[in-house]
Amino acid sequence: MDVVTPQTLAVTTALLHQAFQQQAVTTERLQTMGEYLWQISRPLLLANHTPNQQIIGLNTQAYPSLYWELLHHPRLGFVAQHPDYTLYHQWVSTQIPPKHPLPLRILLFTIQLEKDVQSSLEVETEQQRIYTVLQPFIQQGIVQLQLPDDGRFSTLAQLLAQPWHLVILSGHAILTETADTQFLFEANTLTARKDIENPDAIEIVPAQQLLDVLKNATIECLVLATCHSASLAATLHPFIPHVIGMRDKVLDRASHIFLQVFCSCLLQVARVDMAVQKARIAMAQPLLTSSETWSNAHCKPIADPSCGQWSLPTLYSQNPLRPLLAPTTSAISLSVQTVTTPVLPFLIGRRQALRELMDLLQQQHHVWLTGTTGAGKTTIAQRLIWQLQQQGYVIITQLSTLPSHVTVPTLLYLDDLKRETLSIEQQQQINALPCACLLVSRRFFDSELISHHYPLSSPSFLDFSRYCRYLRLPHTSVQLRLIYHGLQGNFAAVQLFQNLPPTNNREQFQQQLQMAKRFLRGRGI
């Protein structure tokens, strides 16, 4: 093996970074980097964690930007892939125990940019995966989960005023020409033009600004599930007991696997370094199902870009043996009350509508949501209800069950509202309610109700395209445009195309589109 020099290390690191950016990483390149790192790693091993203890800690402060998770042992291979070892970084150590007992408070904060379907994140799938893992623990009252459909930086700052055991920040980050990291958040106001060049469509937050918010928060473990976030994780290391960042450009699907396995293992083994190691190992497995293929922005098949993704999660820990919960957890867990939680409604997109409606309801407004059949209004309402329930709201679905006095946060929810549904007396009763109220109907009609009318518009083409991708429709972008405009973005009608054979024949496609339009007319849409 060649003796590594600073110049060799710098060139190898630069080439590997370029390969990650171009999604052209090879196992040979990973191993070369790992063998070089092994040569210089001996002085960096922490004295109190030797390989015999199967916990390998490194003080990498002198080499912060190297791909240390590729550390390659001559006999064991990649250490970060070995099931009997764990690997972490430690620049600062502490023996201070955690302060907060059960329930385990988890925040999954997702950010979805309105750009294009190819670069958009599958945040709904990510939310669903993590919720599925956590749901049994939520039912037992062991976990409290919040996953807001609101990716604004201001919302994150508000939520971080509360203490959390685990915070997962999932979104976008970019490198500037000067190698500074900038994080992209949803803007307060979205405009009709949805692309990254439009400054109104996103809010760019420099790493320093995000650092200022995170370092003052009370967090036991932070996962920065964004590209190029390892440097911020290192900077946050003195302020947060466990911080995980991504060394380079991480694939959305790889991030999903990491978070799903990490959360599952964390609740089983209660050791952050072990959960990270198991999640890295899972990332090395095939990321797609047997029916899926990798493709580019033009939907053309490409080579598997997932090689080396497992090496990107980087753990900085003040003490890998430190649990997330206070030592009194075992005593408290015996008295945790089982809670009944509804299933998380699955909804793709509509984040702006969800955000605006949530703001109105949290201000105790009476909101009347209207929209055609298939527009998604009922699912939106169910999603809002789920979110409010996680915040402690009591949901009332019948006027007859309304308490005489409202002493806790309460929402009255009435679906499929019709003119003949409510008497004048009932409408006046609703008007007098001192709590939030959500009314849902196909059409707005004259009544005595005093409410904020929210007509649900057709979904954006991006949301519609993402829904079609979720349904795994094989249509071209041109065909999707025609379907979108022909059906006015109706989610119910587009499901018909799941049962129709795909075709490139223009006449056959038009026949299928006309069939879907007749379906809409038959439902009075």
TrEMBL record:
Entry keywords, A to Z: Kinase, Transferase
Residue span(s) of domain Novel STAND NTPase: 352-416
InterPro entries: CHAT_dom (IPR024983), nSTAND3 (IPR049050), P-loop_NTPase (IPR027417)
Regions annotated as coiled coil: none
A GO MF label: kinase activity
Keyword ATP-binding assigned: no
Organism domain of life: Bacteria
Entry keyword annotation includes Ligase: no
Domain CHAT: 52-289
One Pfam family of this chain: nSTAND3
Endpoints of the signal sequence: none
The protein's name in its UniProt record: Adenylylsulfate kinase-like kinase
Originating species: Beggiatoa alba B18LD
